[in-house]
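Morning!

This is the sequence you dropped in the shared folder:
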Amino acid sequence: MSLSFVAPTGQGEFPTRERCHITELCNSPAIADVSVARARVEVGVTTERHVLDCHETYIIEQGTGRFEGGDGETVEVAAGWSIDIPAGTAQQITNTGVVDLVFLCICRQRFKPTDYHPTPEGANI
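The structure's back. Tokens below.
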């Protein structure tokens, strides 16, 4: 077994169509099993409903929000909460607090842009 090393890209935070801001912490073909990003959702914003082709786990670092996913399950979350989201599960999150909602997004296998699929706005999640 050999080690893999990935240098930071220096890209920094960027906005997404999902209505959040992403900082890629680790996303490289050299480490294909996982990717890690930090997401930031501004106060009052709800992300776009979507599904991913990869398994994702959120770890809430700051703020409060309302996660909606699966068969319409809604959960109020705050710093310290984790949310495990199987591949193919519809999801979105709303920042319900007074500061930015910040969370880690850990994807297994590593996230690629082709893994992201928006769902119709009126669709049940």
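Headline: The first strand starts at residue 14 and ends at 15.

More detail when I'm at my desk.
O.
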